[in-house]
Amino acid sequence: MVKILNYILIQQKRILLCILIFFVCSEINLHAQKSDWIFEGALNYGRIVPHRDYFNAEVTENTQMIDLVIAKKLSGKKYWHDLLGNPISGLAITGTLFGDREIFGESIAVYPFIEFQKEIKKSALFFRLGAGMAYISEKYDEIENPDNNAISVKVNEITRLEFGWEQYLSKKLALKGALSLTHFSNTNFSQPNLGNNLIMGKLGLAYKFYNENPSYEKPILPAVDKKIKLRFELEYGMTTGWLSGRIPGRDLFHVGRFDVVASKSLSLKGAVLVGLHYEFDESIYVVLDKDDVSNSVGLTSKGFFTLGYEMFIGRTSLSLQVGTYFYNKEYEPVSFFKRDALLELLGVQVYLFDPHLHQKANPYLIFRIKAHAARAHHFAMGIGLSL
């Protein structure tokens, strides 16, 4: 894999030329073809950004990345397609040669994404958001790779944001340029877990097979239900609790959370959220129990409230909740058992029914990351019920 990735990035100019020739030939031979598919190839160039003062490695070299994308423009047959401007959803495969490769290694990643566009004559502004899984060849080792305190396991999560400009060269061929922000981490399943952050410039080509003038009737938009709804959620996750090496034989600890959330739809696109949350963190309990501390359950428990926003994409939604603690006991000398004041919950919800088409009880799955000041504490999965 590494040799292939090396060859691809070393030969990037020739590969870019081959991609251009392929797209031009496709434009000539497949001009009459009508479908919804988009193929994209792109090269990226940028750098790892040390984002903490205790980031060990000195970054001296730039990072290269190649993207291969297959995507589909959502047709507009469903009401939310047209509501969101017929966004593009797809799957990206990304190969990365990190700068200072002897420390950070190489990576191959696969992730789904959604892209929103705002067309301006023969061009478009776009925003792309994607998240998935990445394999990274080099990780932290106390003896062989002590400088890499960013990545401690080989399988990691990848999150990527792109802000860019698309210029149409013809009806089906487009040149794409973007600024991208990419984050790799294990969401605190293992320590150290600073994560790698990349800032990169991107240049690529996209070939579009879809029909620009589909002949279908736009669906009728459902009415917005602006009543306040209650949600009840149970979540379970695991965390290192930043305790690696402190408890013999234990690297991961259980985290459980119960949430009561009130939601009110502002429009078909989204809803505001107000939540109360109770959390039990075993990583605190184990230390307290080991030290025979009284009231260990009370010290282990955390209570907090959040304000947030949920964006609906059919039966799926994206949510961001920001809050602070109202119950957050401290325990010395382990200072970080008292959590930082600011916390974030970043989530994906998958409903059994479209929330705007089904006004009764609606169960859903939860996939959520909790962080403090953008530093991941744990990843959790759960179930919820909207009433």
Oligomeric state as shown: single chain
CATH first level of the largest domain: Mainly Beta
Identify low-pLDDT runs: 7-34
What is the averaged pLDDT score?
85
Please provide a written account of the structure.
It is a single chain. Helices cover 13% and strands 50% of the residues. It is mainly β. It has two domains: 2-208, Porin (Beta Barrel), CATH 2.40.160; 229-386, Porin (Beta Barrel). The radius of gyration is 23 Å and the shape is flat. The relative contact order is 0.11. Residues 7-34 have low confidence and may be disordered.
Brief characterization of the structure:
By secondary structure, the protein is mostly beta strands.
Characteristics:
387 residues; mainly beta; 2 domains; eight-stranded antiparallel β-barrel; 6 helices; flat
Q: In terms of topology, how is this protein built?
A:
Blueprint: H1 2-10, H2 12-29, E1 37-48, E2 63-73, H3 79-83, E3 88-97, H4 101-104, E4 106-120, E5 123-136, E6 155-168, E7 173-185, E8 196-208, E9 229-239, E10 253-265, E11 270-281, H5 282-290, H6 296-300, E12 301-313, E13 316-327, E14 343-351, E15 362-372, E16 375-386
Antiparallel strand pairs: 1-2, 1-8, 2-3, 3-4, 4-5, 5-6, 6-7, 7-8, 9-10, 9-16, 10-11, 11-12, 12-13, 13-14, 14-15, 15-16
